[in-house]
Write a structure and sequence with these properties.
single chain; 106 residues; mainly beta; five-stranded antiparallel β-sheet; 5 strands; 49% strand
Length: 106
Amino acid sequence: FGLTSKEDYLATILAGAYRPNRLARDYAMVYLFMPGPGSWDDWSFILFQLVNLNDRSVIVRPGFVWTGLPDLRFDAGVSFHFGSEGTEYRLGGQRYDVSLRARIDF
């Protein structure tokens, strides 16, 4: 959408046009991926950070992936939300969320 002010977020949400990570005009991202460090061949570690440069809200997600069996994968992480109330990554006062996923291929 290219919004530059958090005051415009409510109207966008009420119009049904809200799309996460596409609301503001400017973003910055950092993604670090460390596959199988040292003797930990079945593990990968991830650090993801996304910043809305217009309202200065931030989401940071450290996580890990375990692929110890050929057809099984576990993924877990915690996302931490920073910024003022009402900014994109703090809508509704959200401070963190937890994700756990399992994938089985057959």
